[in-house]
Amino acid sequence: MEKKQFQAESKRLLEMMINSIYSQKEVFLRELISNASDAIDKIYYKALTDDQLTFEKDSYYIKVVPDKESRTLKIIDTGIGMTKEELENNLGVIAKSGSLAFKTENEIKDGHDIIGQFGVGFYAAFMVADVVTVISKAQGSDEAYKWESEGADGYSIEPVQKDTVGTEIILKIKENTEDDNYDEYLEQYSLKSIIKKYSDFIRYPIKMDMSSSRPKEGSENEFEEYVEEQTINSMVPIWRKNKNELTDEDYEKFYMEKRYGFDKPLKHIHVSVDGTIRYNAILFIPEKIPFDYYSKEYEKGLELYSNGVLIMNKCADLLPDYFSFVKGMVDSEDLSLNISREILQHDRQLKLIAKNISKKIKSELQSLLKNDREKYDEFYKSFGRQLKFGVYSDFGSNKEMLQDLIMFYSSKEKKMVTLDEYVSRMPEDQKFIYYASGDSIDRIDKLPQTEIVADKGYEILYFTEDIDEFAIKMLMTYKEKEFKSVSSGDLGIEAHENDKNDDKQKEENKELFEAMKDILADKVKEVRASKRLKSHPVCLSADGEVTIEMEKVLNMMPDNQNVKADKVLEINLNHDVFKSLKDAFVQDKEKLSLYTNLLYNQALLIEGLPIQDPVEFTNDICKVMV
């Protein structure tokens, strides 16, 4: 028996790999199964070029054998096996990959790809095992060898007897500790779960003897235990099947099996790309919003596979935040992996896949919007808010991508409409896309500010969510039409004939409005005659970029920004209240102060803004009633 030292740099290197590279110990099984799959792939590839070899697929498999008594776990394959030199070269040099060398030597570029190109995965076994033994007989060799190691101190190689070609890896599983339960790697159902999670789509059968019970023959109440060899993995992933062979039920079943959600998916998207970069993807747009969607606990991302082997449960880089509701998976043979299958280089390939996926999701949502409006409305109820966040975030860099997908409630249609639908209905004389903000549709319906816009027959979009106005401010225009709040200073509506004397009235009432402004002090920027009111006596409007609705939203945020809109108190000169104001200005300055404060507080209430002193407000009402 030869005792040798690892040719790697130091014990510290091996310790670092075992303890740091892999986030979960259970991935050791994924790595060893992937290596076993590689070994079978190599025989398959050699059979394509060697007339002496035949590849009968049914003869090739991987078997997992736990033994609680001896505390061992075996991973057996019928693959190509390794010679003494290959054992030493592939396992004696940390981070050297036999699969990568095989692929390079044989110039394999396309088709039957080799999974294990990266050379570190084998050493994941030391995360769960005190001793790792590898017994292997190479194809075409009469000799077999045993490689054994207890870790960083080195390894031994000696000849052994093995009748069949292939490799058997024997792990002496560690004893349990306070922090780790190693027993689970000896339990049938725990191992089955790990195999299904990571290696379900390995192309060769992964077999295991499974214990079950059945009624004893001739007895209804007695049961007997029996052991049956089962194939654990499904082998052929749904994404590699022809779309024409699959039904909606097949996709729904996959959605449920992968636990993407407890709802039924609203739509599935099956993508197969064979170009500069090859990948398959199955994406789902959920029907219902996850309960934790807007919490810190929610993790976006798609499952990422490399050649059928699960690399990451949640690859966040594959989805932009505005499409974070999408569930599903991506499988690519072309991804560059670094060190282990868990660590991805943020390279051009991944970015290209992500870009293509985003375009595909947008295209499918537009198709849903056009061809199945009822379903799109259902989707938008759940995730429209996220699309609007997408328009606003990243300084509006995604607004071109999302502007045709967002919708708002329409005053005319009495339902959600797109910006394109709104603009297509605009009369020639309408300069702006008008909107009104408020807590609810009913509340906006009653806003005094909407009167003149509605009177002109113009459609108004209702903004009922806190993100709406911020998103629109970032969007700025749609199809060269600027957005305009019904509460803004200049509505761009021509004056009515009976309003032609505005300037005269403004001059006549200048002193009254100045007196009211003095009473309100810094609460308002200005008091002026309103051009927008018809039946209501008073309203608030805003001068400047910050609207009243934005003030409300910003001041509800935890950092207490104390933002103030430049408010203007507008008075309807055609309302009876205005006559009372004029009389009070001439006859009773105390009453003018009472009326001014009442009107201001009424305007605040209409806007849903808090009254600074509710007691004073109720006392003022009582004074008017007496």
Description:
- With 626 residues, this protein is of the alpha+beta class.
- It is built from 19 helices and 23 strands.
- A hairpin with a 4-residue loop joins strand 2 and strand 3.
- The longest helix is centred in the middle third of the chain and has 24 residues, at 348-371.
- 36% of the residues are buried.
- The model is unreliable at 95-99 and 110-118 (pLDDT under 50).
Task: Using brief descriptors, characterize the structure shown.
626 residues; nine-stranded mixed beta sheet
Q: Give the end-to-end Cα distance, rounded to a whole number of Å.
A: 111 Å
Ranges with pLDDT <50 over ≥5 residues? 95-99, 110-118
Helicity level: 25-40%
How would a textbook summarize the main sheet?
9 strands, mixed
Provide the fold topology.
Blueprint: E1 2-4, H1 11-21, H2 27-49, E2 62-67, E3 72-77, H3 84-92, H4 98-105, E4 129-137, E5 144-151, E6 154-160, E7 166-173, H5 188-199, E8 206-215, E9 223-231, H6 248-257, E10 267-274, E11 278-285, E12 302-306, E13 309-315, E14 327-332, H7 348-371, H8 373-392, H9 399-402, E15 407-410, E16 416-418, H10 419-424, E17 432-437, H11 441-445, H12 451-455, E18 460-463, H13 468-475, E19 477-478, E20 481-485, H14 502-508, H15 510-520, E21 526-529, E22 538-543, H16 548-555, E23 566-571, H17 576-587, H18 589-607, H19 614-625
Helix pairs in contact: 2-5, 7-8, 8-13, 17-18, 18-19
